[in-house]
Amino acid sequence: MRMRAALPGFLMAAAFMAGVAVVDGAAKPAVTADRPPISVSRSAGDDCADPLLIASLPYSDLGQTTCGRGNDHDATCLGYYDGGEDLVYRLDLASPTIVTVTFDPLGTLWTGIALFDGCPDTGNCLVQRSGYEATPRVISGLDLAAGSYFIMVDKWQQPACIAAFDLTVSIPVTYANPVCDLAIDLREQGLTSFPINTCGSLMDYDPVIGCTGWAAAGEDAVWKIHLAAGEAFSAALTGQDYDASLYLLTDCSDMGSCVAGGDDPEVVDYQATADGWYYLIVDGYQLGGCGNSVLTIEAPVAAAGESWGGVKRMYR
Question: Which residues have a Cβ under 8 Å from the Cβ of 47 and sit 6 or more positions away?
C-alpha cells in the first residue's frame, strides 16, 4: 500500500502561512539562510577524511549523536535531509558480503542515512533512506563487493542535529525462500493464513509496472502453487508495516509473465488458463523495501467446487 503522509489542503495552507515549507504533502521547517557550520575541531566521524571505522561485523554504535559534528557534506543523494550536522562511517569489507544497516533516530524527525562507494561529496550513492518520521530506517540485504564504503547519517537543517541515534550493521540470516527455485509449495505448507517478514530475502524480481500498477523494487519472497486450467486462486496481504506489493508469475525468468498483481490493495485474484506452476511473490514498492505482513490464501477448484481446505486434504 502507498504509505505516504499527506496534509489536508487547509493544513497545508496554514503551514504555508506559518512559514513552514511543504514537501511531498508533509510540512517541514522553512529554509533559512543560517546553516550549521562546518566543524572547526576535528573528531573521528566528522567527515570522510577521518571516519568512524566499521572493521568487523556485526557492528553497533548506540546512543551516538551528530551534535557538534558540523555540516561537512550537504550536496548528496539525501536531498532535503543532508543540510544538518552529519556523521560519517567507513565500512571495510575484505570479501563480498550481504549487509543490513539499521538507523534509529530515537525520536528525531527529518533524518536520513545513505551509503556511498566513496566520500559522500564525490562517491556514488548506492542507496539512501530518509523521511520526516522518527522511525527506524533500514537498508536491508545489500549485496556489496569487497572494498570500502561510506555511511552518512544526517538530517534536515533545523534543528541542526540528531541528539541521539543507534546504528547497527549486521549480516542477515539466510532467507528460506528468496527465489523461485526455493519457492515454498503452498499446498504442501497447508496454511490458509500466515505471517511473513521479507527482510533478508534480497531484491531478485521487479516485474513490468503493468503487473501491479507500480514498481516492485523491494526485497521479495516466493511461494508456488500448481494450478489446473480453470482453477481459481486468490491471495491477499494484510497488516503490512511497509509499502508492499503482491503478484503472480508463470515464469520467473520473464518479468513480463505476470498474470495478476496488486499494490494498494495487495490482492491477487486469478483463474488459471493453463495447467502449470504459478509463483506468488511478496515484494515491496520502494528500492530495498521489506517488512512484516500476513498472507492469506484461498484456492477453490472451479471444476470440482472444492474449497481450499479440501485441496489441502488432497495433498496430506
Answer: 39, 70, 72, 73, 88
Q: What angle do CA 201, 283, 224 make, to 5 degrees?
A: 80
HSE of 10 in the Cβ direction (CA atoms, 13 Å)?
A: 0
Q: Of 170, 190, 209, which closes a domain?
A: 170
Task: Give me 244's grid cell.
Answer: 508492499
Number of domains making up the chain: 2
Tell me, what amino acid is at 86? D
Identify the bridge partners of residue 61 per DSSP, sorted by sequence position: 167
| Weakest-pLDDT range from 2-11, 49-58, 183-192, 270-279 | 2-11
Q: Are residues 233 and 257 in the same domain?
A: yes
Q: Which three cell numbers stand for residue 296?
A: 492469506
Together in a domain, 153 and 215:
no
Domain annotation covers residue 21: no
99 is in which domain, residue-wise? 44-170
Residue 145 has pLDDT above 50, yes or no: yes
Name the percent of the chain lying above pLDDT 70: 81
CATH number (domain holding residue 165): 2.60.120.380
Which CA distances in Å does 49 have to 45, 57, 84, 120, 176?
A: 8, 22, 19, 11, 40
Q: CA nearest 31: which of 66, 87, 79, 72?
A: 79
